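sry for the spam today, last one i promise. struct tokens for design, 167 residues
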């Protein structure tokens, strides 16, 4: 008797679940418009998808519940530590709480994860300038150097920023 007869059924069930779970979430409603109604269901349907805790963290941050939002951002980072947007959102939350060193650490991770994406590098640089951390100088110089190569159309702005950072 073949001992692996159950394997195709298991694979089919898994693929069916993975393909239909986002459809089920979409039927519940728009997770951006009604986050506190839709996102708990989405997280229960897809517990290993980092996108849902990230959206819940953003919704809670906008509502002013920073501690709860932070827990969801940490959950999203644990599920997918390679998403620079989650790291940037975590840095924004840390900045709101006044935890500048943790925000700097999260922004450094976001910049490191996508070094060839100009929009990510610009976002990290703007957040670092707003954060005003004394140890951010070397990272800002590195970001400006990268952006000179990645986004040559904004060289004039970048040279002005470089002069301000170095000076």
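last one done:
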């Amino acid at each position: 008797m073949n001992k692996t007869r159950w394997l195709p059924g298991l694979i089919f069930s898994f693929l069916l679940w993975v393909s239909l779970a986002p459809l089920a979430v979409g039927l519940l409603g728009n997770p951006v418009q009604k986050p506190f109604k839709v996102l708990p269901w989405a997280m229960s349907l897809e517990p290993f998808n980092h996108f849902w805790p990230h959206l819940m963290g953003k919704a809670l941050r906008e509502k002013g519940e920073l501690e709860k939002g932070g827990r969801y951002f940490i959950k999203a980072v644990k599920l997918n530590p390679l998403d620079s947007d989650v790291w940037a959102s975590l840095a924004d939350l840390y900045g709101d709480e006044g935890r500048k060193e943790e925000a700097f650490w999260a922004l450094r991770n976001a910049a490191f994860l996508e070094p060839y994406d100009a929009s990510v590098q610009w976002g990290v640089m703007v957040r670092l300038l707003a954060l005003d951390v004394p140890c951010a100088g070397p990272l800002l110089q590195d970001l400006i150097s990268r952006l000179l190569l990645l986004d040559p159309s904004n060289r004039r702005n970048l040279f002005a920023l470089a002069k301000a950072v170095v000076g």
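Residues 6-28 form the longest helix (23 residues). ok im logging off now
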